[in-house]
Amino acid sequence: MTHPLVTTNEVAQRLHDPSLVILDVRHDLAQPERWGEDRYREAHLPRAQFVHVDRDLSATKNGRNGRHPLPSPDAAAALFSRLGIDESKSVVVYDQDSGMFAARAWWMLRWLGHESVAVMDGGIAKWAREGRPVTSDVEAPEAATFTAREAATTADAEDVVHGIEDGSQVLVDARAAERYRGEIEPLDPIAGHIPGALNRPWGSNVGAEGTFKPANALRAEFAKLLGDTPLDEVVHYCGSGVSACHNLLAMEIAGLPGTRLYPGSWSEWCALHPDRNGVAARSP
Length: 284
Known about the structure:
With 284 residues, the protein is α/β, with parallel strands linked by helices. The protein has ten helices and nine strands. The chain has helices at 8-13, 35-42, 73-82, 102-111, 123-129, 157-166, 177-180, 215-226, 244-253, 265-272, and strands at 5-6, 20-24, 49-50, 90-94, 117-120, 170-173, 198-199, 234-237, 260-261. A five-stranded parallel beta sheet has the order 1-5-4-2-3. α4 crosses α9.
């Protein structure tokens, strides 16, 4: 499983394959504590394990490291070991529909060198529309030993500052256009965007039914946004380092790998640099 996206039909064909680990990453930013887990306990894909965005895929917040701080490689490896993931396993991740939260789990596994991981296109919403099996049974995973390879390069706030100053990066903001422009801000104390950032709302990557656009369409859209910018100079961010992973995933689907994530994103940036706020918004 080397392609970053997998269809519901492909998952159905491997549903009882013991070499496949399935992760349910449903989440709601407005109801973060219980919404996803409650939906999981009502109905989920057979054999799926629930992963909580806040408790499992994030480190402890300190007020200056963003709303979803990236766990340490050791902490992430311990989580993946508990979930039964080792080098012999393929992993499928899904969420409620369009993959915003599943992309965070996908990215974290890839971050630590686990290549055999894919997001189920359309999430459990598409799976359910197709009448495929679900269950409320919760199976305990058989623990494994996840071996983290050298973590992929990310950007931190200092890197972003240097990139702004020397022009060595292109920032891509995955939030909705009105948040990027600073017209509204429902989650963070300051509205706006990092100076110089372009806007590519993560929802632009999917169609009306929550499935990803074709690879050639995504490639054309990112080419229009980024021009001839080298991929290793592209840095993605969002509000807290979650939906930005959707843009990284979309670029992988488009055959444009090698871009980086700023995990702290706007929620960290506006805490560390409250006066460094974009003005003259730029959109594709």
